[in-house]
Amino acid sequence: MEHGRDPRPRRQASLNAAVTPAAGARRARRWRRRGVFAASALFALAALLFTLDRLYPLPPVDSGGAAVVVAADGTPLRNYPSRDGIWRYPVKPDQVSERYLETLLTYEDRWFYWHPGVNPVALARAGWQWATNRRIVSGGSTLTMQVARLIDPELAGKPSRSLSAKLRQAWRAVQLEMHYSKDEILSLYLTHAPMGGIVEGVEMGSRLWLGKPARDLSPAEAAMLTALPQAPSRLRPDRHPEAAQAARDKVLDRMVELGRWTPAEVADAKIERVVAPPLRARWLAPLAAQRLLQEAGAKGPGSRRPGDRPALVASTLDADMQASVERMLLDRVDSLPPKVSMAVLVMDNDTLEVKAYAGSADFSDDTRYSHVDMVRGVRSPGSTLKPFLYAQALDEGLIHSESLLVDAPMSFGGYAPGNFQATFSGPVSVAQALQRSLNVPAVDLLDRIGPSRFASVMLAGGVRLRLPAGAQPNLSLILGGGGTTLEELVGAYRALARGGIAGRPRLRAEQPVVESRMMSPGAAWIVRDILEGGGHPDRPFYQSGSPARQLAWKTGTSFGFRDAWAVGVTDRWTIGVWVGRPDGTPNPGFFGANVAAPLLQDIVAALPEGAPQFRTRPETVQAAVTCWPLGYKLGSVPSGACPEQRTAWILNETAPPSFAGYADASQGPLRLQGVATGSVLRPVPGARQVAVDVEVEGAEGEVWWMLDGRVVSHGAPGHPFKLVLAGDGRYTLTVMDAQGRHDSVVFEIAGVTP
């Protein structure tokens, strides 16, 4: 080297001379060989993994037959254990608390979203410890490896720290990463992580140990559920709260060490005590849950194993509303006779979603046939179908709200119905007949409309009237002669609140909305007004504290007091109540008005009102002054006579005249003679009874004599009637002819010797 000269130009020249075209080609070939080798190695590795994956496939990931039926907000209603008796609740990462995910990933697997199923650093450390100690000191398990152990039956039966188990666990973890996304793998852990006893998964653990959903966990609760799977038996919070609290605090300390939470946050979290109730099933809507599970198993997506039930079945039920209804039933059940049950169904009128479903009074009481779902039980509906008959008569132009009907003993081809109270009211309006649930006027209307036509309208509205084998629809239908269900009645009554359109109640949100028209909007409005306010445009009958809570309701009692019903509608809800014995045994003294109606009204008072709705009267409904009892509008009576003016709801500007035979009720006065109103009658000295001869003037056709509403005689009008009374008191005597005309007197008997 020459003194003072820089050697770098010479060295650079030497290097430049070495890089000849031939040398460059050789270098390029070497890099190509290396690339081909790397690609071949990767291909071979991929082929090996593919082959191993086909030879040793992942075991099917399923719920093991476990299932949970949940309310609309995810609240568990009823849990069904797996084949091995485990309770699980499938859940996704976005359905649990951020605090829990933070503690879980920080404490168990900080590199979860970066490793391919196994953590090479952790495995290397575990391998070195095994080589130096001849035993596994730390397993180096990732969350994915823990999931592999949870889903692989063979791993569950091997010691967790054996080398063969670790190798199999690592391979299964790689397979999981090949087949599932990171969030899916995390979901498997959240669903299957052991939480003590027969509980698996963070959601089920949170619900059963803490009484809350996993999305609402506090930092302390999140840390406790993170630690629990490490030793689920030893750390069960109901049996070993001190151990569970110590394990929780260890997780909390780790969060401070790694800088995830501040010391102040952890100090606040440690103040919370670990307290858990004894493990037991907490059920809501058990019969609805059973039905949902059966329907989902038959029609919904199944799991990978034949016969497995779906893991999660969602319903439309409102957990708070369901709990409130069940409490009301339990409050009443002890006052019922033995073996009597109750059923309730609450439906949202807009969505048709069922919000409360109680198929029996007390699911824990087998003496009341608790496992019989009376929401679906076919029973006689009593008088609950009458509103639909009157609506049909309105739509067919037969009546308006003040049309004359006659409640008196009548025979319809040998069928002679009576009233529940065994009395008769004489001439009544349509509104009075419906609100009092009088039987003879209803049978008369059905006779004019036709039982088959009425049954068809009911079927169109979702109410299938079951008749004995071979029987045809007949006049007894309107008094409960055909069977139906509470569910069908609720769907039909919805028509009164939604313009005449009935709907099929839905227990699952994915069920289609099924609606059908039962009556015109005008007929629905008039019938609802009668049931809710008496049907008089000029004087409302019933007022509630809030317009949204105004209730249009109807009761029913089947023959022999076997079934007591009450069904009602508000702006937002349709509610049905049934009370009786599921085996059909009579319950004397139990009828809709005194048993089912009070429960219905209590339920309505407890329901949320929702947004107030302004109810508009359909344009087809008008208020008109009519002439009673002829039925015509004022000013249009053919004879010009109008004995009494009454304001009525009419449909489509039409005021039909009263039925033939009833229309002559104003032709000449009918007078009862022989005793005057206000009279006080006394027996002759020494007699123990009072006898009085009465007669009627102006009657046409057969006449009926009624004392205090009970028929005591009938016959030709020209013959006096001898009335004999043997007790002091106040009496009402009424006489009515075949035209529906009537006259009454009120008098007293006094001085009869006992």
Automatic annotation (TrEMBL):
Its EC number is 2.4.99.28. Residues 663-747 form the Penicillin-binding C-terminal domain. It is an enzyme of class 2 (transferase). It catalyses: [GlcNAc-(1->4)-Mur2Ac(oyl-L-Ala-gamma-D-Glu-L-Lys-D-Ala-D-Ala)](n)-di-trans,octa-cis-undecaprenyl diphosphate + beta-D-GlcNAc-(1->4)-Mur2Ac(oyl-L-Ala-gamma-D-Glu-L-Lys-D-Ala-D-Ala)-di-trans,octa-cis-undecaprenyl diphosphate = [GlcNAc-(1->4)-Mur2Ac(oyl-L-Ala-gamma-D-Glu-L-Lys-D-Ala-D-Ala)](n+1)-di-trans,octa-cis-undecaprenyl diphosphate + di-trans,octa-cis-undecaprenyl diphosphate + H(+). Residues 1-21 are annotated as: Disordered. One of its GO terms (molecular function) is carboxypeptidase activity. Keywords: Carboxypeptidase, Glycosyltransferase, Hydrolase, Membrane, Multifunctional enzyme, Protease, Transferase, Transmembrane, Transmembrane helix. InterPro entries: Beta-lactam/transpept-like (IPR012338), Glyco_trans_51 (IPR001264), Glycosyltr_51/Transpeptidase (IPR050396), Lysozyme-like_dom_sf (IPR023346), PBP_1c (IPR011815), PBP_C (IPR009647), PBP_transglycosylase (IPR036950), PCN-bd_Tpept (IPR001460). Pathway: Cell wall biogenesis; peptidoglycan biosynthesis. GO terms for cellular component: outer membrane-bounded periplasmic space. Residues 342-601 form the Penicillin-binding protein transpeptidase domain. The chain crosses the membrane at residues 35-52. GO terms for biological process: peptidoglycan biosynthetic process; proteolysis. The keyword Membrane applies. Residues 84-255 form the Glycosyl transferase family domain. PANTHER family: BINDING PROTEIN TRANSPEPTIDASE, PUTATIVE-RELATED, PENICILLIN-BINDING PROTEIN 1C. NCBIfam families: PBP_1c (TIGR02073). In the N-terminal section; belongs to the glycosyltransferase 51 family. This is peptidoglycan glycosyltransferase. The lineage of its organism: Bacteria, Pseudomonadati, Pseudomonadota, Betaproteobacteria, Burkholderiales. The gene is pbpC.
